[in-house]
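User: I've been going back and forth on whether these two constructs are worth ordering. Before I decide, could you fold them both?

Assistant: Sure. I'll take them in the order you sent them. The first construct and its structure tokens:
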Amino acid sequence: MALIDHQEELDLLCELIEQSSIIALDTEFIRTKTYYPDLSLVQIGFEDSYFAVDTFAKLDFTHFSRLLANPNILKIIHSAEQDIQAINRFFNIEITNIYDTQLAALICGYGESVSYRNLVKDICDKDLSKKQQFSNWEVRPLSDVQLVYALNDVKYSMNIYHELEQRLEILGRTEWFREDSNITYTLPDEYLWIKFKKSSNHIEEFVLIKAILKLRQKYAMEHNIAPNHLIKNIDITKLAHKGNLLNLKLENLEEYIQKEEFYNYLVNNFDYQAELTEEVAQKFQNTKNYIKHAKLSNLIKEIASHFADKYGLPESYFISRDETFAHICQIPYNIRFYQGFRKEMFGDFISKL
């Protein structure tokens, strides 16, 4: 088994990476109760060899981490976001030059969130077992079955990469992929409330929901706790629908909050008057304007539907619901059709509506 848990083995692997301009990359991590993923393995794949680096081993990862951060080495990852988070946090680096095969597959017409397993089946005609997907990656020693599973996650990446690159070229969508690879779609913390835009009918509800989300995010990051282990999104929505937020008594939230420390944190840090700024009031009014502009929203959806049908891709690839909402409400959110090929296709037209 190609498990790297000794320094001399890691040094040899680093030599192989140094000689390469492209590697396959994957991770195994645990993220059930924590805000940040806890890294367990880093899998590295080449054209015909594959390795799993044990991050629990007491090794000097300085050289290895420097190579992972090398912008001149292309890293092929499937559904890269959480892998990148885990690697960046563990090694204290910033990975760049990522080729996300899930994004490439989406643009090639495989649909949203296509799995690595399905790509392996379609492109490589191999069936992979996912039985170890939720196994305990903290236990040592890892079983042979776990290692086979982990290595399979990079074994076929090169073949998938070459096939998707060819398909993108044939479809004339290579530049779409290059452009989308450099855009970050993650919703900024200050706009988390967009996900709850239909839950607040009164300014008081809006202010409290916005404050709870902001404070929950800050507490979760500082204490490395999964946000839903503090208070669940569905409970925030329930509270809003029931009208329990109208009187602004955080004591009414106590039964929904799962940790007493977080409850006390909310009580001590929530200040309604400080939260109710002119800017917040304007944001709330903008959300109400969204309802008044139903025709514009429907027109934008029709535009997305037209291009989705034309290219055989999901509507959300061209315009997401959050982007439509942010555009109509004039929220400075990272809207993709304000730039690049989407802007040329339809963005300029929408901006004039």
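The second construct, handled the same way:
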Amino acid sequence: MNTFQLECFLAVAEYLNFTKASERIQLTQPAISNQIKNLESELGVKLFLRTSRDVQLTKAGTQLIEEAKNILGSFNNIKRRIKETDDERTISLGIGCHNQIEVDLTAILLKELLKSIPKVQASIKFMPFKHMANLLDDESLQVMFGYKDTLKNSIQGEYIHLVSCPLVCICNEEHEFAEKKILDQTELTGKTILCEPHSIPQPIFKYQSELALSKEMADVTIGAGVESSFALAKAGFGFLLFPDNGFVREPDLKYIPVRGLSPISFGLYYKNLKDNHVLKSFIEIAKKSFNEQG
């Protein structure tokens, strides 16, 4: 006896008509009849009295109705509980961020993810690039933000491009550059801010350090990290050269494009997409969000 035989039995018992039961189960009438015949054979009793005009339940058939419903109910409940347990194993998502810009971006994307996967359990790790790569490599994290090629020698993973970030001049509203629509590299004079190398990827530090080396040391202020550097720019210690993803911006700062500087690809690193529907959804939401922004 199996659950499909019981489903066929209950359909015939409900309609007392093999044709209607076959339509309900979406099976041919001979196939339904065969399932009932096998069930009767296994139980050793007749479940229906069939004539050329109608179908009637036997006493054994009437007694089986409640038992069949209980068996199918228990079986479906077990399936549901197993599915919920399986879902609980796959709805956790660890996301790596290196600065507050990425944390703010993560909040926007997770808000959208919650709409489609309400039970998702998200965690956000906030640390420098090199340490984050180790967590991604051993799959303690499922995904992390980063710039292309930043980690190519550090992890065995995949990279998905989200947006090409132009390097822009970031300054406060009182800075002499604040009203500029665009700047040439030769105009990047005056005090500048340099992020410490451990806090930013190498391609960004390369641009910042080349600019800093062209100035007097008195005109260079060093920020301990991205957040510190942005705070220094807000306070008026100079301007900061940094990639602009166009999605998350500080409202009190100006973002001015600079001619002649190559954009940097910003995206997501991940290790494994297999059987991880939550990570797939997060990546699709990120791609869609940046496409709409563009």
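Notes on the second construct follow. The domain at 167-262 is CATH 3.40.190.10 (D-Maltodextrin-Binding Protein; domain 2). DSSP finds nine helices and twelve strands in the chain.
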